[in-house]
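Re: export button greyed out
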Amino acid sequence: MTSHRDDIRFAVQQILTASAPSVGAPIASWDSQAWANLRESGFAELGVPEDKGGAGGEVTDVVDVVTTVARNGVCTPLIEHALAGWLVSVSGHEKPRGTGTVAADSSAITVTYRDGAVRLSGRLDAVPWASTADWLAVILPPNASSLVEVAAVDLRDDALTVHDGTDVVGAPLCDVVLDSVCVHNIGQTGLSMDRVRQRGALLYAAAMTAAARAVVDATVLHTSARSQFGRPLSKFQAVQQRIAQLATTTTAMERALDQATEALASDRPHAAVAVASAKVIVSGAAVMVAAAGHQLHGAIGFTSEHPLGRHTGSLQAWRNRWGSDDEWAQSLASVILDSEVDLWDVVSADPGAFASVAQ
Amino acid sequence: MSATAVDSPRPTAGYDESIRVLRGDVRAFLQSEIAAGAFVPACDSWMSGFDPSFSAQLGDRGWLGITIPVAYGGQGGSPLERLAVAEELLANGAPVAAHWIADRQMAPSLLNFGTPEQKERYLPGIALGKTYFAIGMSEPEAGSDLAGVRTRAVEDGHSWRLSGTKLWTTGAHIAHAMVVLARTDGDVGDRQQGLSQFVVDLPHPNVEIRPIRSIDGQAHFNEVVFHDAVLPSSALLGQRGAGWAQVMSELAYERSGPERYLSTMPLLRAWGELLRTEGSSAEQRRTLGTLTARAWTLRQMSHEVAHELAAGRNPNILAAMVKDLGSTFEGELVDEVRRSSRTEPRIGADPFASLLANSVLHMPAFTLRGGTNEILRSIIGRGMGLR
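Workaround output, generated via the alternate export path:
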């Protein structure tokens, strides 16, 4: 008897397998066919209500799609598109057509009102997918009530310039300069910036955790298949010990992610702590996992054609998306030191302890 | 997909209201004891904090023997209730060493394998926090390789004669009884076959207990020598020859508890308090937050192990992972707090510096006891099909 979550993962897996995704690193061209299939099937539109142009569903569904896509190393704008769509829908608008993206940091953006329109100016650094997406969600600096507004702009607007670039795995990572760009829509989300960042952090934690599991699987496969000195690498104690540590770390990432997803999806009082902890653990382990995977694969894992590089490169590329492990560690420390929640209450997630802490 | 990969949602480590109330009661008691100076929160308090009167107080309040049936003097409660109480005791560094082993693994062992007489004899005292146990497993020639034990029990009419030496036996010097893994059939070459367990009441005229001083300045380990000690036939625990399987099931309890990652939580809490009152740099906040995130994650994993055990399953791979990660965390916490607080560990007037110093002294033991991390990783490797 399969669960709803199993069904989603299975269906997405079928789509990805049928899309003949690319393998290896750096990425020569991203998986546009897989993306088109994910969009058409509606899986890329989960997390956005149907009346806002989405396919409905919860953040848990988005996590399941993200996880399956990342496990396969398929390179698409899924996370940014899901976040952008969610933000615009929460701001009360239908999401624009086409692929969306979003900038995690828009503190350098200024808002003006001219000729009857709201206009945005300034620079957005390191925006994933801005060179291939159709529209961009801009999170406007929080107002006095510390709740954010979101505006959507057309990436093909004449007053907007995209400067190409790629991240370390080869996916688009661009700078965007806006020169009094007229917004397509704008609205109040009723969300705190923290809540927005938590969703971004959760989706990237999910992607990294899936990439880590792919590294573990590839490593077990390689060390079982490759023989030296008369036996498979996996029979050597030093190799077994390293693989065990790699698997343990990955299991910890998965458990942290699971609990953070449940907490955020169910709006638990300790959701902020759960997401922060998960991002600290996942981002903190990303490089260790990548390094162990490469060490255990030997030279062959360093080649461009080998699948390993897609996963380890993704771990490196995604590590600090929507907050580094240091930044999220500081936010946890703030709950203890500034909001004065007892450290053990934070660890043991006592619901009562968080009643007075802003989420 | 491996056995440990995520296939479906896991239970969350939160809250049943009655568990929350129980936790609150334990917490309130501990806080008032600390305020009254009855104890000072210590690291590794489950290993070195021997306080018989404190153990008896916990027993009086019904916070020990939680999973022992009411018929045997226990509370008839759930493993998750026991876990909540254990977490609070450890997070507050309470002196629970006297009863810890008895409550943690002897009670389940007696319930699983004991005769009605053995249950009657020991369980009520365990539930009251008045009967203490030691576990005799390791020997001079058999540590990680436990199947190589040489202690021998020879049948002699209606009794047994026990000969051999146990080593690293925590708490033998204060225990009322000791469980001993010994060979009853075959020889050392038969390894896991032919082993049995015995419950030895202490003191015994032919059982010599010699304390071992360790570098933490304490003597909680012992060498226990059995000089042809006579035991009644009723001393056999469980089935003759089933000793290995019985020990393995006991180890599941020993390896899965919150003491596998909470031993140094009192130090982290104390440092958090210090930062709150004295202020903190950005780097200190990063360190505090990172250690908190690791503890949070370990707790989630620890709860999952408890759920699996409570459901009658055997999560030995996950338990090995939690113990490997947790015991490593316990030591790294000490070093990180030392580095970030820039405190010189010193036993003396300053409580924080003393707590830090004692934590440093205990560090080597974290990743050795109850199965070294290297052994745990071998178990994980075998579980992944590598071996």
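Chain A touches chain B through 63 residues (CB under 8 Å). The button fix ships in the next patch.
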